[in-house]
Write a structure and sequence with these properties.
The protein is of the alpha+beta class. It is 41% helix and 11% strand. The protein has helices at residues 36-51, 57-64, 68-77, 84-98, 108-120, 141-160, 186-195, 198-210, 214-218, 249-256, 289-304, 312-324, 329-336, 341-344, 356-361; strands at residues 3-4, 7-8, 11-14, 17-24, 27-33, 225-226, 231-234, 243-246, 269-270, 282-286, 367-368, 384-385. The strands form five sheets. The protein has a three-stranded antiparallel β-sheet with strand order 3-4-5, covered by helices on one side. Strands 6-7-8 form a three-stranded antiparallel β-sheet. A hairpin with a 2-residue loop joins strand 3 and strand 4. Helix 7 (186-195) packs across helix 11, helix 8 (198-210) packs antiparallel against helix 10 and helix 8 packs across helix 12 (312-324). The radius of gyration is 34 Å and the shape is elongated.
């Protein structure tokens, strides 16, 4: 270290404490140290950072003043995700909870407390509700997990840009979710068809035939439909690559029944088939899927007495009906466009004979049954209990096969 007048340059001893003095870009900076050796080491490291142009305290200070609300708004503005509606809701929720805090000040313990409060928050009890009726939760475990999953993504972007040193959501344990695949039964579909307008029912039937997601079906264009080769082309859907959806004969019949092919580029233009003076038909825009749900789908569910379902249940129904008649899971995966086979395995229990042969081979009921043999008279051989089997003396008992 350079010395000036017998003293180390940049080191100052004030009232028993050692200080490092730096002058950079015309600004003077002081750093307090415990010992002289520590001050020397710090001075050498800071001077090396200045020479290598890695010493930018102004830039570092500006990052520390970034609030979560400002960073959420920046992430939402630059988001190219398809699900911007939910992202807007998550942004609003986190901005109200801890939006004023700095990114570097948000700790894992703080988020853990918020997670617990969200889990315990209950809806207000109605005034005339019976005493034995317990209030319901405002957010389910799955909803809480979606909020924290989005926050984890936001902090991951901040960590990548160097605004924080670690992701505080990384230490959060997500709640276990109960996964139950709900699908329409045959009787429910018949009841639903009976209470719906035929034009509205055609959209429901097409969803069951193709297994399309809601945004995929309502955003479908006629240029994506190839009736000659019996498939749909979905460019860049949820999986991130072009998907080809095969069409059944019934699906092609339904598509041919829509007259929008002569008037619009959309298969389902705005207010298709329900135009009037107050609500005119607009063929230049696709139909609003949420408006269709409120106008036709949800009222029909109430009339049919069907609960616990949504539009996505139609996609589950499309998969379950094919698995139930023996279509292999890999084919169902390709039809629905699942990214991996694990998503399709949720329907495996619906397959005819799924694991049935294996469980029968491993069963033991206390009897030995002869299978595949028939007496000359045409009668099947009967099973006998194990304790009544007689073997010749001097012979060891035969090993019973668990496969028989």
């Amino acid at each position: 270290m350079a010395r000036k007048g017998g003293k180390d340059r940049g080191l100052v001893n004030r009232r028993g404490s050692w200080w490092v003095r730096l002058v950079h870009n015309g600004r003077e900076r002081w750093h307090k140290c415990d010992t002289k050796s520590q001050a020397k080491a710090l001075y050498q490291r800071l001077r090396a950072d200045i020479r290598e142009e890695r010493f930018f305290p102004e830039k570092f200070k500006a990052k520390q003043t970034l609030t979560l609300r400002a960073w959420l708004a920046r992430c939402l503005e630059g988001s190219a995700n398809r699900n911007r509606v939910n992202e807007t809701l998550y942004n609003r929720r986190w901005s109200l909870l801890i939006g004023r805090r700095l990114l570097a000040e948000i700790s894992t313990d703080t988020l853990r407390q918020i997670q617990r409060k969200m889990q315990l928050k209950l809806r207000p009890r109605p005034v005339h509700a019976p005493k034995d009726v317990h209030p319901k939760r405002v957010w389910s475990d799955a909803t809480v997990n979606r909020h924290f999953a989005y926050l984890k993504h936001v902090f991951a972007l901040a960590l990548k840009d160097g605004h924080i040193q670690r992701n505080p959501v990384a230490g959060i344990t997500f709640f276990p979710e109960v996964t139950k695949t709900r699908f329409f039964s045959e009787a429910e579909l018949i009841r639903l068809q009976g209470v719906m307008d035929p034009k509205d029912w055609a959209l429901i039937a097409l969803a069951v035939e193709t297994g399309l997601r809601r945004e995929e079906q309502f955003g479908l264009k006629w240029t994506q439909v190839d009736l000659e080769h019996s498939y749909l082309v979905l460019p860049m859907p949820k999986g991130g690559k072009t998907r080809y959806v095969p069409l059944s004969e019934q699906a092609k019949h339904l598509l041919r029944s829509f007259d929008s092919v002569f008037t619009s580029a959309w298969v389902f233009p705005s207010v298709l088939g329900h135009a009037n003076k107050a609500n005119p038909k607009d063929d230049t825009r696709p139909m609003d899927s949420r408006a269709f749900l409120r106008r036709a789908f949800e009222p029909a569910l109430r009339k049919a007495g069907i609960t616990g379902v949504s539009w996505h249940t139609l996609r589950h129904t499309a998969a379950s009906r094919r698995v139930a008649v023996g279509v292999d899971l890999f084919a169902v995966k390709e039809i629905l466009g699942h990214r991996n086979i694990q998503t399709t395995l949720r329907y495996a229990h619906l397959s005819p004979g799924h694991l049935q042969d294996a469980v029968n081979r491993g069963s033991f009921s206390g009897t030995v049954t002869t299978t595949g043999t028939r007496a000359r008279g045409g009668e099947m051989t009967t099973s006998q209990p194990v304790e009544y089997l007689v073997r010749p003396a001097g012979f060891e008992p035969a090993t019973l096969s668990l496969e028989g």
